[in-house]
Write a structure and sequence with these properties.
With about 80 residues, this protein is of the alpha+beta class. It has one domain. It has one helix and five strands; from the N terminus they run αβββββ. Strands 4-3-2-1-5 form a five-stranded antiparallel sheet, with helices on one face. The longest helix has 21 residues.
Length: about 80
């Protein structure tokens, strides 16, 4: 049971990060029921966002979640441009 839960959370985290990376700057992404807003610019050389804002306005770092304070969430993938 524990292994299945860990595998599911890893898959959800990958889907969340893939959706965020595929979205253009300033867009809103909905993945597994969570809404994220990307900033207009990024400091990363590859152009991918380092941080996003969740629905409550909290700043989140999807590449660092799960190490050790973040945790993935729960169904779907949708991208809308602002």
């Amino acid at each position: 049971m524990l292994v299945r839960t860990a595998e599911r959370r890893l898959a959800e985290a990958r889907e969340r990060l893939d959706a965020i990376d595929a979205a253009p700057p300033s867009s809103t992404v909905i993945v597994h029921g969570e809404t994220f807003t990307l900033s207009k610019t990024t400091q990363r050389i590859d152009g991918k966002p380092e941080a996003v804002y969740d629905a409550s306005g909290a700043l989140r770092h999807p590449r660092r979640e799960g190490y050790p304070t973040g945790s993935p969430a729960a169904p779907a993938k949708q991208i809308t441009s602002s």
